Amino acid sequence: MKVIIVGCGKLGSGLAQNLSKKGHKVTIIDTNPQAFELLGKDFKGETIVGIGFDKGILEKAQINFADAIVACTKSDDANALIGRISRNIYRVPRVISRLYDPRRAEIYRSLGIQTISTTTWGVHQAAEMLSYNQLDSILTLGDVEIIRAETPALLAGRTVNELTVIGEIQVIAICRDNKTFMPTRGTVFHKHDVIFVAALTTSVNRLKTLLGFEQKWRKIR
């Protein structure tokens, strides 16, 4: 997984170290070159000095090929802007922004941006949010959940029809190679697809079984 982290403070540097040790390709951006000292000598990722919402800097970090971006600067406004640019312009599949003001969380979620609060989240939790073995509920409409999931290996090569349960579970969109489209029942899933599924709340466990997910399903809060 290729991850871009903007902000090399305690959270950003810790997350970069954590992901790098797990074998992920990590690029971390900060305006202060001295901030990279927090990464230690063993850090194997890439560091870039610059402003995290500068398109030139983001493209230097190869945002077009990123699987995820985490904005964890000291500014909520900067983190929001980075999140919006990453989601709306570059179509990064997973976007996470740190919040100092949790009251903004609902606004972020409406933009398709996951949020982490400095008071309740740490490096381990942020790393878990980047895991591709989970389901994320991004919207609740009465008894229906709109759920985002990363395609597990066992689903690659299979069709949307195999994940469809009439009246209970329906794939409504697929994000692939930074492009989102509405599939037909014959559409074949590819590895690393991000899928959006409408499912009855009572059918979420059935969806987990169909996807082969064993980890506990978690709503974004």
Strand elements, count = 12
Strand order within the widest sheet? 3-2-1-4-5-6
Please compute the radius of gyration using only Cα atoms. 18 Å
Q: Please tell me the total number of domains.
A: 2
Order of helices and strands: EHEEHEHEHEHEEEEEHE
Mean pLDDT: 84
CATH fold node name of the largest domain = Rossmann fold
In the CATH hierarchy, the architecture of the largest domain is: 3-Layer(aba) Sandwich
Taking pLDDT < 50 over at least 5 consecutive residues as the criterion, the unreliable ranges are 215-221
Q: What structural class do helix, strand and pairing data support?
A: alpha/beta
Helix fraction bin: 10-25%
Characterize the structure shown.
With 221 residues, this protein is of the alpha/beta class. It has 2 domains: 2-129, NAD(P)-binding Rossmann-like Domain (Rossmann fold, 3-Layer(aba) Sandwich); 135-215, Regulator of K+ conductance, C-terminal domain (Alpha-Beta Plaits, 2-Layer Sandwich), CATH 3.30.70.1450. The chain is built from 6 helices and 12 strands. The protein has helices at residues 10-21, 55-60, 76-89, 105-110, 123-129, 204-211, and strands at 2-6, 25-30, 46-49, 68-71, 94-99, 114-117, 135-141, 144-150, 169-176, 179-181, 194-200, 218-219. A 6-stranded parallel beta sheet has the order 3-2-1-4-5-6, with helices on both faces. A 6-stranded mixed beta sheet has the order 10-9-11-8-7-12, covered by helices on one side. Strand 1, helix 1 (10-21) and strand 2 form a beta-alpha-beta unit. Helix 1 packs across helix 5. The radius of gyration is 18 Å and the shape is globular. Mean pLDDT is 84; it is low at 215-221.
